[in-house]
Amino acid sequence: MNRLILFCLCLHIAFAVRAQGSDTARYELTKNMPVYYEKMKAQLTWPLARRHCTEMAFNDWRVKARQKLDSCLLPVPPAPAAYDMQVVASEQREGYRALKITFNLTEWSRVPAYLLIPEGEGPSPAIVMLHDHGAHFTIGKEKMIRPFDVSPETTQDADKWVAKYYDGQYVGDYYAARGYIVLAIDALYWNERGRQEGTDYDGQQALASNLMQMGMNWAGVITYDDVRSVEFLASLPQVDRNRIGALGFSMGAHRAWMLAALTDLVKVGAAVCWMNTTEYLMTLTNNQNKGGSAYAMLVPGLRLWMDYPDVASIACPKPMLFFNGSRDKLFPLEGTEEAYRILREVWESQDAGDRLVTKLWDSAHFFSKAMQEETLEFFKRHL
Fold first, then answer.
1. Given pLDDT bands bounded at 50, 70 and 90, which one contains residue 14?
2. CA distances from residue 101 to 98, 111, 187, 246, 248 in whole angstroms, order as listed
3. Could you give the CA distance from residue 213 to residue 101 in angstroms, rounded to a whole number?
4. CA 164 to CA 168: how far, in whole Å?
5. Chain centre to alpha carbon of residue 227
6. H helices within the chain, ranges in order?
């Protein structure tokens, strides 16, 4: 009997230990992040950040940093042999004409776009308008320019989106009515450059994967599509190619400072609601760690060399404007403040501090009419 009791006791202990072990089973990921993600971040030393390359002349650093950015983005679809622009439809608006056009963006892609031409003799200053992500793919360029000659559903879609994030005002039209030529295209995966099967959130991750399988990356394609659109804009006789700017909100802001860093055809840039650092974006609670939408702005290998504000600093000494909302849940306030400090240090080192605007607004993820007015005044001053 004593042996039976002892056996049962040992069995009970064994089951208890096994149960306890199952509660503390080994794992190496939490909330889709490695448990050692802080150690991973500590390995990132940003060797090509300007603050770590002060022994180099600034222009030499700028060339080297741009070359690294370029190499991480490439390869991309080849440039077109000719743009072959065609006007599909037009509409007269107050102070400017709205054109729906198509042109060869690359050798492989012929794209639709909106082009707004203000009244009066040119050549005129021009702005490339860069739409947001928003996980909302049914419209792209229509987020920046009021659509026409489209279905009622598309118009309603655009009006609702602009009311939600742009204070009810189409930014492109706002600029065109004040003398600027404006161009807006769809980024790859949005609207008329979207999926034959229709919009799908998970499809963007599949697209990014498929591009990587074939040696490209989605962020590189988007960035170089933007470069090609600026080159197209500069080719138009109505445009003063020495006065071209880039403006965007959210993902469009990322596109704007990437564009300003990569090509000097862009003379002035404004980025609204997209600037931070890896330290504050790569956390257990930030939306960046969910993947999916992040792929549109991820450049393979680049984080081994430069952080986000370091890349944006390649644009120095161009006039650049960065706005963020202090209540923007997508971009932690501490990270934005740190990024602004890095940017300001670079511009001031080149006696160009007066060309840089970094401003926090008491707002969430939003491009208000007051912000739009200040960006316009910034472009007027520098463009």
1. very low
2. 10, 8, 15, 20, 21
3. 32
4. 7
5. 13
6. 2-23, 37-42, 58-73, 152-165, 171-176, 203-213, 218-235, 251-262, 278-281, 308-312, 333-349, 369-382
Interval 48-86: pLDDT, tens: 999 999 999 999 999 999 999 999 999 999 999 999 999
Helices (H) and strands (E) in the chain, counts: 12, 11
User: 360: left (phi > 0), else alpha (psi -120 to 50), else beta?
Assistant: beta
List, for residues 274-312, the tens digit of each pLDDT value: 999 999 999 998 877 777 789 999 999 999 999 999 999
Domains of the chain: 45-382 (3.40.50.1820)
Are β-strands 181-185 and 110-118 bridged in parallel, bridged antiparallel, or unpaired?
antiparallel
Tell me the pLDDT band of 3, cut-offs 50, 70 and 90.
low
Which residues pair with residue 208 across a beta bridge?
none
What's the CA gap between 25 and 14, in Å, rounded? 16
Predicted structure pTM score: 0.92
Q: Which of 227, 172, 135 is nearest to 367 (CA)?
A: 172
Q: How far apart are CA 318 and CA 331, in angstroms?
A: 24
Q: Can you name the residues that pair with 114 across neighbouring β-strands? A: 100, 184
Cα separations (Å) of 216 from 67, 205, 272, 375? 17, 14, 27, 34
